[in-house]
Amino acid sequence: MPEEEPSSAELPEYAVPEKCSVIEQLRISIVSAKQLVGLSELKVSRFVRYVILLCFLVSIMLTVVPAAATIASFGGFSKLFNERMPAFEVKNGEFRVEEPFSLVIGSCEIVMNSAEDTVAQDKFLGKMVTIAIGKKRMQVVLSQNGLSEVALDQPISAYFEDGFDKSMLNEAIPGFYIAIGIMTLFTMLWTAIRYCLAALIYMLLSWALVKQTNLDLNKGNVFRLCFYAQTIGILLVNLNQATGYLIPSFIVSIIGIFITFRWILKSVVKYLNIGRQGY
Questions:
Q1: Hey, CA dihedral for 177, 181, 186, 191, is it positive or negative?
Q2: What is the secondary structure of 59-114 as a DSSP string?
Q3: Using the 8-state DSSP alphabet, how is residue 218 labeled?
Q4: In whole angstroms, what is the distance from residue 111 CA to residue 119 CA?
Q5: pLDDT confidence of 119, banded at 50, 70, 90?
Q6: Closest CA to 115 of 129, 132, 127, 92
Q7: Rounded alpha-carbon distances, angstroms, from residue 243 to 65, 68, 131, 163, 190
Q8: What angle separates helix 44-59 from helix 219-229, to the nearest 10 degrees?
Q9: What is the pLDDT of residues 132-172, one digit of tens each?
Q10: Is the pTM higher than 0.85?
């Protein structure tokens, strides 16, 4: 005879269904700290799906919706290129534009300024990704929480052939939509790296506490628990960024860290082997 499923009375308080959907994982991560332990015990494949979902939501907030709104406000790429962008040309390996120009599309900023060989970073708005095209060099700069890092720095000739000018942009419009798709994937990857590293730090800080509980959790479980605990903070921080920092980013980051630690504590403190029964 097949084994009987344990009754609800036999399941621990933190239990979640083995086939918990990513939407249900999202709901639990936001409203039920006591079930984070259960989420941490799900199969790794389900956790990976959750990371993908959360990173996709972030990329929608930071890239897709703002990009679509920006393109619509211009009346499409064609009007942007023909009516708003100044004339430019690449000649003898140098980029020349009539006047400095900048464009923000979602979490990406494009800056053109041929008055400088390399565009100075004080000309940037601090978007997640800045593509800066100077007279002789083109840079891709990544920014987060006020810190910037040059990811790519190449001569203009590495990207544009002599003779490339504004009139050729209309033919490249499909490529710009592809670039937005690539940017969305990049945002997802960057988000996953950032918050997995943050979850690792939370895990290291929380490990000593978890070891004092009667929960049978290994470091992998605690890492996943800490990632789930970040959910509210991740959504708050990135929603604030997507809306143009209605609240100073430092304040929202502090709030996100506080909520994350609070969620971690609420999920495990009841099981401490020191006589406490509630929190």
A1: positive
A2: HIIIIIHHHHHHHHHHTSHHHIIIIISPPEEEETTEEEESS-EEEEETTEEEEE-T
A3: -
A4: 8
A5: confident
A6: 132
A7: 11, 14, 21, 39, 19
A8: 30
A9: 899 999 988 877 766 778 888 889 988 888 888 888 887 77
A10: no
